[in-house]
Amino acid sequence: xxxxxxxWLLTIGIAVAVLIFDVVMIARNPHRPATKELxxxxxxxxxxxxxxxxxxxxxxxxxxxxxxxxxxxxxYSLSVDNLFIFLLIMAKFAVPExxxxxxxxxxxxxxIVLRGIFIWLGAAAINNFSWVFYIFGAFLIYTAxxxxxxxxxxxxEYEENxxxxxxxxxxxxxxxxxxxxxxxxxxxxxxxPLFIVVLALGTTDLLFALDSIPAIYGLTKEPYLVxxxxxxxxxxxxxxxxxxxxxxxKLVYLSLGLSVLLAFIGVKLILHALHENELPFINGGEHIRxxxxxxxxxxxAIVVIxxxxxVASLWKTKxxxxxxxxx
Length: 327
Hints:
The protein is mainly alpha-helical and 327 residues long.
């Protein structure tokens, strides 16, 4: 996929402009967004992603369009999993509703920057070392097993990492909530509670990026598609947080569904690594003829896995609710 420099710059420029617009609008009027506002914004982002995929199809072919849609859906589903942790963080720090938009906005900006770095590192590794697919694949399968066996424990309570504890114990701070990250107290510059929350959201997303970036590189090796899929997934994350806050609690099988999805992509990466094998201690450094999973099959599998996960989760929640009423 040949992407001109001006296309890269235009894409990044549009993303920056949208983020700046959001930051300014939220700063002027901190509030909990109404449902109509959320639906309109989310419809815009989803529609823009669909149209972008159509543009990729018309200008670069169905193969790359399929890779974009598969990557976008995967990143979106993994981002939904992020929302569980975001809800716990907001509850842990007792963030007032009117400041939650601001916290999420800054957290998403940090996430985009961190993922941009990971995308660049991933592209560099793939271009220079084909064996990195073995590592990516093994890591995703390990993560899938861990998510399937330990996923439910994430819903209990957010536990601060050492870095966050160090920040809270070291940096001078105030307990007064505001829409700013820094303020002055007794003529001394201090961090606000919002700063602590934003940092918690950003560092948490760093851990999620360790899963999501290898996962999307299992679906496409085009850095431009990896970047745009992540941008479209993260741009609508703030709206999803408020719109699906209650529904998230009903997706009881989400961790299991995502574990199946990550395992599938992990196997796909291992097969690709074997096909491109250059490691001397595996088949004498020669390529291994193994079947590779085409993008059409990958896209279909992603849709089925996410669909079955959602339907099964809602069915179980409804059944349990009826059981409680009849008990």
